[in-house]
Amino acid sequence: MKDLHNHIDITSILHPIGITATATYPDIDLADANSAELVIDIGLDGALGAGAYWEFHLYDSADGVTYAAVEDADMLGVEDITAGLILTVNSTDEDNTIYNYGYVGGKRYLELIVTEAGTALTGVMGIMIIKSDLLDSPAL
């Protein structure tokens, strides 16, 4: 078995919690890593449906100040990105699911905006970034 433990860094962007409003998670720092995977873990939300959904927009930045929407070429595992929209969860068939997307855009910072639309949603979600190909790996 190969060693993964000493070659990744996992950072929680949002510890699992009930989300009831739009939220912005800025300054997700990818320093010292050559690859990154965004993981979105969405729990049960019975209110999802027509007119009640979550949207996830991802932006990147070289300086942590000026952000631009990611595009198809920046991401793995998603396509047809418009205005940074990487995921829409609008059905109970789409909750209780872990979504993961690779970032290959090459910028140091990411910003994730989670938008609630429609009726008050109450689902639990957690978000993390997994960084790999670390520039400063521990000595083995």
Write the layout of secondary structure elements.
Blueprint: E1 8-18, E2 23-29, E3 33-42, E4 53-61, E5 68-69, E6 75-76, E7 85-89, E8 97-103, E9 109-117, E10 124-134
How would you characterize this protein structure?
The protein has no helices and 10 strands. With 140 residues, it is mainly β. The two termini are 15 Å apart.
Strand order of the largest sheet: 1-10-3-8-6
**Computed CA radius of gyration, to the nearest angstrom:** 16 Å
- Please state the average pLDDT score: 91
Task: Sketch the topology as an H/E string, one letter per element.
Answer: EEEEEEEEEE
- Record field, number of beta strands: 10
Corresponding CATH architecture: Sandwich
Helical segment count: 0
Strand content: over 45%
Q: What is the helix content?
A: under 10%
Shape estimate: globular
Structural class: mainly beta
Q: Largest sheet, if any?
A: 5 strands, antiparallel
Distance from N terminus to C terminus (CA atoms, Å) equals: 15 Å
Query: Uncertain segments of ≥5 residues (pLDDT<50)?
Result: none
- Which CATH first-tier class would you pick? Mainly Beta
Summarize this structure briefly.
With 140 residues, the protein is mainly β. The protein is built from no helices and ten strands. It has a single domain (19-134), classed as Sandwich (Jelly Rolls).
Primary descriptors:
mainly beta; 10 strands; Jelly Rolls; single chain; 140 residues; 5-stranded antiparallel beta sheet
